[in-house]
């Protein structure tokens, strides 16, 4: 009996040892899957950020060309200089320096015009309007080159591409080479990107209008969502009786946090625009929609930091004869405040990047200016990214990536502020 | 293999109980050590030499040297935080699973260093089973709980063989009669005492040589406790059992050898009867008479 | 104007506070013997302040919400016949131009003379309506505040329990704030239901749910509505489902294994690096993922498939090669894969929480049996955590279905009933955006269709969320 038992034990040990190698191989594989999963996430993040920087960094500088312009008295009406076709005039003058004029130059003028930004005509007209005595003289203007020429100087349009597939003709490339050889082309920091609103011309488009729009929107969101969200959380955590209404509100908030953002867009469209007749595309409506969206997350974050305040604090205050309200507002809420602010900032940062609802309340329209109040039509950073991504001009692609970098920079600043706040005030009970 | 019979080596014969030792404790200890002329203490199964354990910077165990005999119940007693559970966990290298834990010294099982790099913790744990304070059946059926070890270790070759192992283990754990008709219902649905016996069945299903028990009865009521103690006494015939307990009465009832730990050090070890009737150390006497701890 | 009124209300409230406090203090001083005032003067002051501010603010808020709809209604009802005959969106343009003309600006649109003659008088009438409404609101607000203040003032007596009343108001205000959550839900349901009902009266529900033809782009003129546009949404559901499936095929294994690695294998140091990386990934706005999908992943995938196709053409798999060479940027696979990446941190953080909720004793039990980590994870932890993980995956699915930007930017517009991941498909959310971002009249069937889709989306995601949250909650209670 004992012998068979020992023999059985021996075979079992044998089997155990025999399987070990296979089991460890499986263990290694399993571990590898985990590492692989993490690697996928990390690699993707690196790829995403790398690609955006790669695509976008060129948008932060732009090329200008010095153009001597003979302000031809025959073509400029001093009383209405804006009426002059300066672009054509400059193009013809440029062609003339090449020895081309008259009929031969006619069709080429359009090609020449295509090298300069339409900013040229505004600059010249403005100068002439300011100082009509310039007419008849030759003035040198530094004007942005057109978006395609800019891409060429940045090496994004290659001269090796067959000419029918590229956006610049052989002749245009020849002229650009000449200008560069003559030292008339210089690159500089693209300040316009940060100081102007949207434009249909890629080389003139900037993010300022969208940044201001997003800021106004976030202001509305913060003013509405933070007080209401904190108040709601305080009620649910500190005052709400455990009854069906409270349970209903609780379930409601959890579900609202998971409602797709585009549904909030539909709500905003139906409620704020079609029923309340608030102005379309305005930061007011955008802020209202984002406030409704941010509300559940702010409530949830506030509740968890209220929960983290130990009950002993409440008991101590109540035992001193403070009323429930006094206890909450004088003791519990101040202690929870850093956590509340951290949660609020993080949900605002999230709201800043939210795009889908903005599309439905009209923020995809082309809005060139910079809004000065919350009821004026305005763009927003994420919707600007969407608009620019959709634009057919290739020069908008690098600007889209640049706008993404601006958006991410704002989000990083907000999240960093939240982290610092948490570090600074972190309390261990 | 060292064949040390500690009882004779100590050379101490049980005399009159020392002053202050409760009579019932002494009587229980005497009964456990001297059961109807049954097997005496076996040969040394595990030998620990200068074992220290560190959790990060904190040292939890200081230079413990202890021989644990086979086919015997050895009780580790002492106040909370004295290092008895820590010592227990060094014997199947469960401390490996705690980040920052470090074990120094030497622990031999059948003359083999269990901390050696070449020794596989998986193999070791298949030979050294463990039962925890709180019953922790897996959220699976009773059958699957017991079959867990044979399955992961690939110990059986056929369904019938596996079923045989499960039945035998449940029988040895004294649970078969109670669960035979509901082997496929959830293990978590059993009572606390049944769960603990299920966990014991799970441990013996892989046919271990040593069973470590970390306060196995502290979460149970007295009736369930009595059943487990009875079971431990039966299991002693086949296994080397080490039990950590808070209850002096339990140590006296079930163990033949007792080791008293205090502040991370082994204070005294000897036959249970000796320890409870005539301890050599003042601290041991103080503890068993309830003056601290 | 609203600001001025707000300022006045604030001043009035402050005055009520000061006066109320003084009155309470005086009356308390007049007490003799052992009598003591119940509440402190400050609390009486606060009580008076609330009674001034609350009614006035209530009127102001109600006004700012309702003035839009009311004035719109009033302006619409009294219009001359020539204007009444205009189509809906022309009528809106007329109202806007009338306001401009009344302000002395030129009209933006060109109007026939018989309509144009009404511009100036209609503009003036609209301005009158708005001014009247505004003044009514201002007077109403101030009146409400004064009456409220008076009521409060009469009540100030030493035995009046001002503190309890003030606290009652505060708690009431908090309750109102949390009720906004419910109001939001009601608002969502109402706004979706109202317009969706109008849509479903034009397009029968079965046709919408099971029709296989989706081409709403034909509704150009108002009288054409519904007659020629096809609103069978089945291809959209199929597209949504396909992209969700691809996304889950990426997110579920990767997210789960990331969670398992984080909770069971990673040491404190690597956790400290990996967690922030996942958080950053979770914080990247979806429009950025969309940009990446459209301009990087899409072209790269197309290039890859086209190359593969070129390689296969002429071989035994010639047909497949021909097909692969024609694959476009906007395939379901691209949108689905990028969405899957987006969901990785979502799945992994939820699953991480859920794995951590499994009691340590189960791990100990398994390790003590000699199980390796992978055996412990796959045989003990995963079965134990299964309900929680299932809940997490359902939540991720709901996210994938409702996600808009990635699909809008990287999936196509072609409504095709296919499960081929290399095909261009469209989704419910893409169509909502497309239907509502064009320049068309709001009440056309085309725009109402967006609300029908929105309602469907809301119902499906809500069901998924409710089920998932139930499962996760029951799971958590099991180990609490």
Produce a short descriptive summary:
The complex is a heterotrimer of chains A (429), B (293) and C (480). Chain A is mainly alpha-helical.
Strand order of the largest sheet of chain C: 1-2
Tell me the series of helices and strands of chain C, N- to C-terminal.
HHHHHHHHEEHHHHHHHHHH
Radius of gyration of chain C: 32 Å
Q: How many domain modules of chain C?
A: 2
**CATH architecture descriptor of the largest domain in chain C:** Orthogonal Bundle
Fold-level CATH name of the largest domain in chain C:
MetI-like fold
Which parts of chain C are unreliable, with pLDDT below 50 for 5 consecutive residues or more?
219-227
Largest sheet of chain C, if any? 2 strands, antiparallel
- Helicity of chain C, as a percent range: over 70%
What number is the mean pLDDT of chain B? 85
Determine the structural class of chain C based on helices, strands and strand pairing: mainly alpha
Strand content of chain C: under 5%
Query: What strand line-up does the widest sheet of chain B have?
Result: 6-7-8-3-9-10
Number of helices of chain C: 18
Shape type of chain B: globular
Identify the overall geometry of chain C. flat
Please compute the radius of gyration of chain B using only Cα atoms: 19 Å
Determine the most extensive contact between two protein chains: A-C, 89 and 90 residues
Sheet/helix structural class of chain B: alpha/beta
What is the subunit arrangement here?
heterotrimer
Question: Which terms would index this structure?
Answer:
heterotrimer, B: 293 residues, alpha/beta, 4-stranded antiparallel sheet, 12 helices, globular, C: 480 residues, MetI-like fold, 18 helices
């Amino acid at each position: 009996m004992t012998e068979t038992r020992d023999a059985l034990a021996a075979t079992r040990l044998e089997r155990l040892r025999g399987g070990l190698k296979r089991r460890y191989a499986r263990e290694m594989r399993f571990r590898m899957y985990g590492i692989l999963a993490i690697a996928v996430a990390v690699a993707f993040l690196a790829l995403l950020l790398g690609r955006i920087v790669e695509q976008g960094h060129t948008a932060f500088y732009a090329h200008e060309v010095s153009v001597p312009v003979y302000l031809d008295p025959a073509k400029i009406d001093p009383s209405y200089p804006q009426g002059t076709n300066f672009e054509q005039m400059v193009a013809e003058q440029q062609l003339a320096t090449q020895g081309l004029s008259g009929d031969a130059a006619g069709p080429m003028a359009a090609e020449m015009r295509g090298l300069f930004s339409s900013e040229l005509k505004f600059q010249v007209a403005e100068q002439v309007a300011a100082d009509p005595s310039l007419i008849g003289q030759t003035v040198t203007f530094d004007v942005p080159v057109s978006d395609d020429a800019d891409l060429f100087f940045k090496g994004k349009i290659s001269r090796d591409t067959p000419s029918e597939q590229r956006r610049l003709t052989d002749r245009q490339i020849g002229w650009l080479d000449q200008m560069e050889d003559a030292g008339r082309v210089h690159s500089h920091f693209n300040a316009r990107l940060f100081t102007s609103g949207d434009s249909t011309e890629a080389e003139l488009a900037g993010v300022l209008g969208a940044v201001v729009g997003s800021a106004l929107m976030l202001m509305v969101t913060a003013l509405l969502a933070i007080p209401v969200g904190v108040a709601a959380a305080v009620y649910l955590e500190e005052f709400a009786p455990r009854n069906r209404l409270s349970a209903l509100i609780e379930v409601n908030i959890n579900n609202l946090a998971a409602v797709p953002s585009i549904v909030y867009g539909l709500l905003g469209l139906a409620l704020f625009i079609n029923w309340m007749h608030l102005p379309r595309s305005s930061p007011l409506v955008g802020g209202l929609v984002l406030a409704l969206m941010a509300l559940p997350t702010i409530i949830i974050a506030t509740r968890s930091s209220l929960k983290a305040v130990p009950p002993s604090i409440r008991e101590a205050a109540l035992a001193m004869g403070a009323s429930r309200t006094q206890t909450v507002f004088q003791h519990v809420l101040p202690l929870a405040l850093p956590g509340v602010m951290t949660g609020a900032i993080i949900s605002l940062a999230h709201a800043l990047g939210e795009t889908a609802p903005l599309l439905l309340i009209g923020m995809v329209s082309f809005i060139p200016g910079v809004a000065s109040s919350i009821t004026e039509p305005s763009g927003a950073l994420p919707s600007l990214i969407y608009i620019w991504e959709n634009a057919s001009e290739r020069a908008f692609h690098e600007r889209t990536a640049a706008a993404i970098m601006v958006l991410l920079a704002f989000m990083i600043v907000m999240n960093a502020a939240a982290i610092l706040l948490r570090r600074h005030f972190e309390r261990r009970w | 293999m060292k064949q040390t019979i500690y009882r004779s080596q100590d050379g101490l014969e049980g005399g009159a109980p020392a002053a202050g030792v409760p009579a019932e404790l002494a009587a229980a200890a005497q009964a456990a050590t001297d059961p109807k002329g049954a097997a005496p203490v076996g040969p040394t199964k595990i030998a620990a030499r200068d074992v220290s354990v560190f959790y990060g910077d904190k040292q939890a165990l200081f230079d413990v040297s202890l021989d644990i005999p086979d086919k015997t119940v050895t009780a580790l007693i002492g106040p909370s935080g004295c290092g008895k559970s820590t010592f227990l966990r060094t014997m199947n290298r469960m401390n490996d699973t705690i980040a920052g834990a470090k074990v120094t010294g030497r622990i031999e099982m059948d003359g083999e260093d269990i901390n050696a790099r070449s020794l596989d913790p998986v193999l070791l744990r298949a030979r050294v089973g463990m039962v925890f304070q709180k019953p922790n059946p897996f959220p699976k059926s009773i059958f699957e709980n017991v079959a867990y070890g044979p399955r992961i270790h690939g110990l059986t070759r056929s369904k019938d063989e596996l079923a045989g192992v499960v039945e035998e283990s449940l029988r040895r754990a004294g649970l078969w009669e109670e669960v035979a008709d509901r082997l496929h219902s959830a293990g978590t649905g059993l009572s606390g005492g049944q769960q603990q016996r299920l966990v014991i069945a799970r441990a013996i299903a892989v046919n271990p040589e040593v069973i470590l028990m970390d306060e196995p009865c502290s979460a149970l009521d007295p009736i369930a406790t009595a059943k487990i103690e009875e079971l431990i006494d039966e299991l002693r015939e086949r296994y080397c059992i080490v039990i950590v307990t808070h209850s002096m009465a339990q140590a006296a009832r079930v163990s033949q050898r007792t080791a008293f730990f205090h502040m991370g050090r082994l204070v005294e070890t000897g036959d249970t009867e000796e320890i409870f009737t005539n301890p050599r150390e003042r601290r041991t006497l103080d503890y068993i008479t309830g003056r601290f701890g | 104007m609203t600001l001025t009124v707000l300022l006045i209300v604030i001043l009035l409230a402050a005055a009520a506070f000061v006066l109320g406090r003084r009155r309470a203090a005086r009356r308390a001083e007049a007490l003799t013997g052992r009598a003591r005032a119940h509440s402190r003067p400050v609390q009486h002051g606060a009580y008076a302040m609330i009674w001034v501010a609350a009614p006035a603010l209530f009127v102001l808020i109600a006004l700012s919400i309702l003035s839009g709809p009311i004035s719109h209604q009033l302006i619409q009802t009294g219009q001359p016949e020539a204007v009444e005959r205009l189509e809906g969106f022309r009528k809106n343009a007329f109202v806007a131009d009338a306001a401009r003309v009344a302000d002395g600006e030129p009209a933006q649109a060109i109007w026939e003379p018989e309509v144009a003659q009404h511009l100036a008088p209609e503009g003036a009438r609209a301005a009158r309506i708005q001014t009247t409404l505004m003044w009514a609101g201002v007077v109403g607000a101030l009146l409400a505040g004064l009456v409220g203040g008076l009521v409060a003032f009469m009540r100030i007596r030493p035995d009046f329990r001002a503190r309890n009343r003030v606290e009652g108001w505060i708690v009431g205000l908090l309750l109102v704030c949390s009720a906004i959550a419910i109001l939001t839900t009601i608002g969502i349901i109402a706004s979706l239901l109202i317009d969706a009902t109008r849509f479903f009266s034009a397009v029968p529900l079965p046709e919408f749910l099971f029709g296989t033809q989706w081409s709403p782009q034909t509704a150009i003129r108002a009288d054409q509505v519904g007659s020629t546009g096809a609103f069978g949404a089945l291809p959209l559901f199929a597209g949504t489902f396909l992209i969700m499936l691809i996304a889950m095929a990426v997110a579920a294994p990767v997210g789960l294994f990331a969670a398992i690695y984080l909770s069971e294998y990673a040491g404190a140091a690597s956790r400290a690096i990996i967690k922030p990386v996942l958080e950053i990934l979770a914080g990247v706005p979806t429009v950025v993922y969309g940009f990446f999908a459209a301009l990087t992943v899409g072209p790269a995938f197309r290039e890859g498939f086209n190359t593969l196709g070129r390689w296969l053409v002429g071989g035994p798999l010639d047909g497949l090669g021909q097909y692969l060479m024609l694959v476009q940027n906007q395939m379901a696979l691209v949108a689905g894969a990028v969405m899957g990446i987006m969901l990785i941190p979502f799945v992994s953080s939820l699953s991480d929480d859920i794995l951590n909720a499994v009691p340590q004793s189960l791990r100990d039990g398994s390790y003590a049996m000699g199980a390796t980590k992978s055996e412990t994870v796959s045989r003990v932890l995963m079965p134990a955590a299964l309900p929680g993980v299932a809940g997490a995956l359902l939540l991720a699915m709901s996210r994938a279905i409702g996600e808009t930007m990635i699909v809008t930017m990287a999936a196509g517009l072609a409504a095709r009933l296919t499960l081929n991941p290399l095909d261009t498909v469209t989704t419910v959310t893409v169509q909502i955006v497309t239907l509502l971002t064009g320049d068309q009249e709001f009440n056309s069937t085309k725009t109402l269709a967006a609300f029908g889709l929105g309602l469907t989306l809301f119902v499906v995601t809500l069901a998924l969320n409710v089920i998932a949250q139930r499962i996760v909650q029951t799971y958590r209670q099991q180990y609490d």
